């Protein structure tokens, strides 16, 4: 809860907004380690704010250890601005650090509810039909990196309890319920952190988040799970390898199937959503 | 330039921030078509702002046609809030609409520069070495949806001109230069729109964007292109199909290789970054 206990800039203010934008550019490498940032006047013009606002944003970045300011020589990005985001295979969603075991999950809510209309549509269930809804946060080394909302048809979810879900990966619970997971379709996009998600992920409201929706089906094509995942981009990113195959005009990209070591823990720990 | 010519809410203000968050929740389906939004007082508490600010954000959403407000019956999400985002295969990055031909590209800049340190590192080139840098915006039906920055080693880029790049897909130019594209590694994340990117994509500064980095190599492993792409999530999303294969403990996800029709135009039009 660092961001919440020690707010250096008021939520929703202009200085916080500029701070978030500059922090993003630094952690994503647009302004790499050692890079010289533009002067205060140029930043003020670029962001359409006053120099006072720029100075407050830079104060906060300096407090984070992301920049070094020296009189006369300008403002530079620090040599090692924070750690690299965890990389995860786009098929497993399991980041490296989770595979290594230093992770945990927090169950924020467990209920039987009517899902949002779009989720019901994607699940192919009738309007007004209830599903088991769970909200979890996943942490690596005590730091939250993902916010997961899962929806499971009521008859399948009847086979497990809130306590089960708090301790056992959902895929294991589905399989225990006789479900044979066969296929999935996933959509990757981006969104902004709403106040409740920001609190759970210990980031600022309005931060950019990577979003992923996965609709999981059994062999007969029935949706057995609907997952909405939100990830902090400073702590998590999706990776994939592509290879260029075919000849001449038929030449095209194909995904490289990941090495199996990434999958070994899938059925054995909490690393599965 | 709609957002810039008719700003309904000042950039950087609290009302604009709440507007962006609510708009995101509506276009992403968190608040689906016809859903009842919480009352002004509850929204004010949730976002930590005044009711006046909430009302101004709702005014802007109403102006966009995203919500309907009726005295006595509250605020509902409109029946058809905007269009669906284009979906694109994660390997080709070509959205459906681009395949259908109603697209174009705008070359914003073309120069020979030293790339950001992180790009140089990922390209495996020496510090201070120059590369050909191009910034392009891609449009579908006249609407910008992606902002592309590409870096190409100087000796390869020497084979094409600014005019070539404005009219011909980069992959065609690379192949014409004798390059044999063999493999790529891509990373998917999220970021916030900086002022210059927001202007190019005709969105608000601080909007959430889907970001993708792709490092493309030839058969000998040399980096021949570095691509940084930013996408408006309301207009573009990445999709992929997965299949669950293997038996028992070895059961795992594998990507499904896309149908070839998605690739047919890859070497024939501007749909390739």
Q: How would you describe this structure to a colleague?
A:
- 2 copies of one chain form a homodimer.
- Chain A has 273 residues and is α+β, with helices and mostly antiparallel strands.
- Chain A has 2 domains: 2-77, Arc Repressor Mutant, subunit A (Orthogonal Bundle); 86-263, Chorismate lyase (3-Layer(aba) Sandwich).
- The first copy, chain A, has helices at residues 2-5, 14-27, 40-47, 51-63, 96-99, 117-123, 154-157, 162-167, 170-176, 195-201, and strands at residues 67-70, 74-77, 86-89, 103-113, 131-140, 143-153, 181-192, 208-218, 223-231, 236-245, 252-255.
- In chain A, the strands form 3 sheets. Chain A has a 6-stranded antiparallel sheet.
- In chain A, strand 8 and strand 9 (223-231) form a beta hairpin.
- In chain A, helix 2 packs across helix 4 and helix 3 packs across helix 4.
- Residues 1-7 and 259-273 of chain A have low confidence and may be disordered.
- At the A-B interface, helix 2, helix 6, strand 7, strand 8 and strand 10 of A face helix 2, helix 6, strand 7, strand 8 and strand 10 of B.
- Strand 7 of chain A pairs antiparallel with strand 10 of chain B, so a sheet runs across the interface.
